[in-house]
Amino acid sequence: MAISAKKTNLTAWRQDGLLAAAKRTGLHITIPQQPVFSEDEIKELMQAPGIVGQNFKRGHALAWLGHLHAVKAFLATDLPTALIIEDDLDWDLSLRNQTRLLAPAVSNFTNAVPSTGPYGLDWDLLWLGHCGDNWQDPTSRTFYADSNVLTPSLQRGAHHDGFPTSYRVLHTSSFPICSFAYALTRTGAQRMLNWSTPSLTPSPVLSSAFDLHLSTGCFNRRIDCVTVNPEIMHHHRQGGGKYSSIDEPGEGVISEHDYTWNIEWSARCNRDMWRKEELVQCLPGPDDP
To answer: At residue 91, what are phi and psi to the nearest 5 degrees?
Structure first.
């Protein structure tokens, strides 16, 4: 399920590109219609303990509420798991091959019961799209081969040093940053919802932006989180567009060209490319943040 606000001329690239990338790679994405969040809902978040005194903008509150809305939409279905993604997400053309390798690795890592599906259900949250998590500290981790991993010298982001070539690591989440894409079981979704909604939690202590709040839950083991490193999804930066939709009008840095960290063959950039010789890479330059 994708979190996407109402389209405008400035933001249409996010949802349009997401759906085009999904079509290119044979994925089906549901975009629940976002409600108009009330001022009371926004105020409740901005005045919650842990938030007051932080650089917490209205955009942070709207993003937070958008995530919770997507989780509620998942719980309203009978699906056993769901992947929650942000609408500027990107992934590799080889995503289906990547997930075929990922599924048994997750199942084995979590000692899942075989009858509970390809990934099992013995986890709350599986962090697939992020901008860094410390994979070297956790005592609980496992490596698995994946020839689709970007060459280590081209990888960007926190804690990417030292990865063996053509391998990923699954590990108990330390403190992942950025909530680009994460999967939830029903148990995990309910735990996250209870812990992240002020009205459902006695004396809630919320942590700054939503991704940091989620990371705190993983770190404190309020929710059982597993990270895949390097990430298999990352947000896309569109030439001429802002890096973040959270920024207020007049704020934020504009990207000069299209690129996606740590994705070799971007589904967004190759949405109209069908022959191998036509494919293009959309990697950041040395000066791109």
So the answer is: -155, 175
User: What span, in angstroms and rounded, lies between the C-alpha atoms of 189 and 72?
Assistant: 8
Strands 125-129 and 259-260: unpaired
Q: For 61-83, write each residue's pLDDT tens digit.
A: 999 999 999 999 999 999 999 99
Residue tagged 């997401």 (tokens): 18
Could you give the CA distance from residue 182 to residue 54 in angstroms, rounded to a whole number? 25
Helices (H), the chain: 12-25, 39-46, 58-75, 95-109, 186-196, 210-219
Task: Give residue 227's Cα distance to chain centre.
Answer: 11
Q: What sign results for the dihedral spanned by CA atoms 239, 229, 188, 101?
A: positive
Tokens of 176: 């992942």
**Beta bridge pairs of residue 85:** 2, 181
- What is the rounded CA–CA span in Å between residue 206 and residue 49? 6
Residues in CB range of 286: below 8 A, 6 or more apart: none
d(CA 170, CA 146): 12
pTM of model > 0.85: yes
Pair of tokens at residue 219 = 């770190």
Confidence of residue 1 (pLDDT cuts 50, 70, 90): confident
pLDDT digits (tens, 9 = 90+) for 163-190: 788 999 999 999 999 999 999 999 999 9
50/213 Cα distance (integer angstroms): 10
DSSP state of 18: H
